[in-house]
Amino acid sequence: MLGFEDKWIAICYVLCPLTALLCVVYGVINWNKGDVTVENDDINWARHEQEMVKEEN
Questions:
Q1: Model confidence over 21-32: pLDDT tens digits?
Q2: Which of 3, 24, 33, 54 places its Cα 20 to 30 Å from the Cα of 15?
Q3: SS3 breakdown of the chain: % helix, strand, coil, rounded to 5?
Q4: pLDDT for 23
Q5: Cα separation of 44 and 38, whole Å?
């Protein structure tokens, strides 16, 4: 296979470019997906955190 004496080395040479291609495809598919939505609990926690920082100063 491809002139290699050991089949495991040949498999590595074949799989390395395939995994790189898989990573590129995954990146293209997920390119513009939005971030995780912010929930009301997160907003309330951030406000509370800011109030506590202001009280310390």
A1: 999 999 999 888
A2: 33
A3: 70, 0, 30
A4: 97
A5: 11
**For residue 1, which amino acid is it?**
M
**What letter does residue 49 receive in the DSSP assignment?**
H
Within its chain, how far is the Cα of 43 from the centroid? Answer: 24
The list of the chain residues with pLDDT below 70 reads 1-2
Check if the beta carbon of residue 4 is closer than 8 Å to that of residue 10: yes
Q: Is 38 helix (H, G, I), strand (E, B) or coil?
A: coil
C-alpha span between 41 and 28 (Å, rounded): 32
- Whether the Cβ atoms of residue 13 and residue 4 lie closer than 8 Å to each other: yes
- Cα 31–35–38 angle (5° rounding)? 170
pTM for this model (two decimals): 0.51
